[in-house]
Amino acid sequence: MASKERGPNLIRKYVWVLETICRAKEKGITFNELNEKWMEDDISGGVDLPKRTFNNWRVVISDIFNIDIECNPSEYRYYIRQKAEFSRNGLRSWLYNTISVSNALLNSQKIKDRILLEYVPSGQEHLYTIIEAMKENRVLSITYYSYSKDEEYSFDVQPYCVKLFRQRWYLVALSTYTYYKEKGPRLYALDRIKSLQTTEETFEMPEDWSAEDYFYGCFGIIAEQSVKMETVKLKVKASQANYIRDLKMHESQKETERNDEYSIFEYYLRPQYDFIQELLWHGEGMEVLEPLTLREQIIGKIEAMLNNYKSTV
């Protein structure tokens, strides 16, 4: 029966297997133990999991998620070889987490009114077209709305990469027009794209261009290369440090000091607009110690905010 399945239902079963084995932690899980849990779950439909099917799924799971389910030959226990894949920032881990959450939601229809989700702008409707164009290195013709100029513009771009940041998708692309092309790739928010279509024109992707390198040292989606990398030191109140510790603000984060009152966190990045907005969002629980230029920027913005409120009192 399982071999005839396809699509979302089968993907759900792959994820179930991954999660169940992952929860077994270091000791792993035998096939009999796995099958017992399978039979206890509604996903089984009351039918045992054939070992041959399970082994076939292991191969497919490795292809889809790049996560290998291996067997300890001495105890015949199955385990996940590279659990770090679950927490790393990348396409496969994002795919796994997305499908995992989808599974949980699909299995929770009885309490759907008690599960509240964040709104994601409709710009994602263009995502499929962009990704297909990226695969074939095809030029895209887009009509884009500019917030600053309150106008729409139509132009052609070479799609380099896409990035998700705070429920919004962004496209990094190079304009085909000489003036803008010389300035390098630019960023476009998908929710501001009014229309988009793939053209017959193709382009050569630069061999020395890397999406990871392009955003190296950046926080968020602004990748202004003219802003130099710096060591940033933050003093965070102990009550707020736990949140920073559990959910890193940036991959370069290091905790260099910790006591009952505060912690010192260090970062090595480009302190650009998105990062400054993040610091302001944390309010009085966070203080910039270094560099002095960043500290002064934060002070200036706080003073400007205070003046705005004073003018209305």
UniProtKB/TrEMBL annotation:
Signal peptide: none annotated. InterPro entries: CBASS_pafABC_assoc_protein, WCX_dom, WYL_dom. Transmembrane segments: none annotated. Residues 125-197 form the WYL domain. Residues 230-306 form the WCX domain. It comes from the Bacteria. This is WYL domain-containing protein. It comes from Pseudoprevotella muciniphila.
